[in-house]
Amino acid sequence: MQHLGTDLARAASVLRSGGLVGMPTETVYGLAANALDVVAVARIFSAKNRPHFDPLIVHLSDWTEVDRVAQAIPAEAQLLWNQLGPAPLTYVLPKRPEVPDLVTSGLDHVAVRIPQLILARQLLATAGVPVAAPSANPFGFVSPTTAQHVADQLGDQVDYILDGGACGVGVESTIVAWPEGRAVVLRLGGIPVETLTEILGYEPEIRTSTSKPSAPGMLDAHYAPGKPVRLMAHGTDWSQVTVPQGIQALAFAANDWVASLTTHGDCTEGAQRLFAALREYAATDYRELWIELAPEVGLGRAINDRLRRAAHRAED
Ligand code: TXA
Ligand code: MG
Question: How many Cα atoms sit within 13 Å of 284 on the Cβ side?
C-alpha cells in the first residue's frame, strides 16, 4: 500500500499503534511517534540515527493539553501562548514524570510545541496522544519541507507520511526556555526574536552558540548539504563577482547576474525556500555554493543561523 498520502485517520491510527508518521507542520516535516510510548520513541532515534543526548519536542493539539506533559508553567510562557496561539514556537517547560526520559534525554524539562498548521493539530487531536517529533531528516542533514523530501530521506523507515504540502515557514520553530527566570532563546526560528521582545517587554538573551548540546540544533555542523557552502555578505554586489565554473551562486534577491533565493528579498520567502535550495545544490554537480546571507533581522536571523551551520564543515 502507498505510504504517502492525505489519509489523516490512517496517520492518527499509526501513531496510536506505536508507528512512525511523517507529520507536516508549518515549519518542517516531523518524524512523529507517541511520546508516551518508549518503544515508539526509540524507533525515532534509530530511524534518524540520532544520538540519545538530543531531546525531542513534544507536539500537542492545544495548550489545554499542556498539563499532560508539563507543570509549573512560567507566567511568561502563558503570556506568549495568549498572544501568539499556535505558532512556530517551542516552550521548554518543567516536565511531568509521565514523559519518558528518552524523550527529554533525562533532562527535567520538556520542549512543547503546538503547531500552527491546522492539519497538524487535527492529526494530534485525532491521535489523542502527545507526539514526539524531531525534524524528519537523518541526523545532521537538511530538514524536509515537503512530504517527498521525507520519503526520499527516510523512505520505508516511516509507516505513513501525511502529505500537507510544502511547509509555509520553512525553518524550524524558535525555542524559548526559562532557565533562570527570564526568557532565553535556545534556537532562532520561525517566530522572530523581535516578536518575543515586543510581548515580553524585554529582549530575551540568545544562547545558541554554546558547544554544550542542550539543543543540538545548535551543533555547529548541522544542516549540512554534504558539500562546501561559502557565505557571501548581505548586500554583495553580484555584478562585481566573478563566479568560476563549477560553482553555484545564489543571491538573496533577484538581480541581473546570478540566480537568487527570493524574488524581492523577502525573508519569509527566503525561509520557505532555504532548505529546498540547499537540497537542490546537494543534488547538482556543483562543487561549491556561494550563497548570500539574509538581512540580520526577523526571520533573516533564523535563515543566517542555518546558513552558518551549513557552511561550517566538521574537521575531517
Ligand atoms: O519546528 C520544529 O521545531 C520541528 C517540527 C517538526 O516541529 N522540530 C524540530 O525538532 O526541529 P528537532 O528535533 O529537529 O529539533 C529540536 C531541538 C533540538 O535542538 C533539541 O535539542 C531541542 O529542540 N530540545 C528538545 N527538547 C529540549 C529540552 N528539554 N531542552 C532544551 N532543548 C530541547
Ligand atoms: Mg532537526
Answer: 15
The SS3 call for residue 153 is helix
In this structure, the residue with its CA closest to atom 3 of ligand 1 is 173
Query: Which residue owns the Cα nearest ligand 1 atom 6?
Result: 30
Task: Please tell me if the CB atom of residue 184 comes closer than 6 angstroms to any atom of ligand 1.
Answer: no
Q: What's 229-311's CATH class?
A: alpha beta
Beta-strand (E) ranges in 84-202? 89-94, 109-113, 131-132, 160-162, 174-177, 184-187
- The number of the ligand 1 atom at minimal distance from the alpha carbon of 137 is 14
Is the CB of 167 within 6 Å of ligand 1? no
This prediction's pTM: 0.93
Break the chain into its structural domains and give their ranges. 4-206, 229-311
Compute the distance between CA of residue 116 and CA of residue 85 in angstroms, rounded to an integer.
Answer: 8
pLDDT in tens, 210-225: 434 455 555 666 677 8
The H-or-E segment that residue 10 falls in is: helix 8-16
57 pocket-lining for ligand 1 (C-beta < 6 Å): yes
- Residue type (1 letter), 219: L
Q: Which fold has domain 4-206?
A: DHBP synthase (3.90.870)
pLDDT digits (tens, 9 = 90+) for 15-51: 999 999 999 999 999 999 999 999 999 999 999 998 8
Tell me the C-alpha distance between 203 and 183, whole Å.
9
Q: Which atom of ligand 1 is nearest to the CA of 90?
A: 3
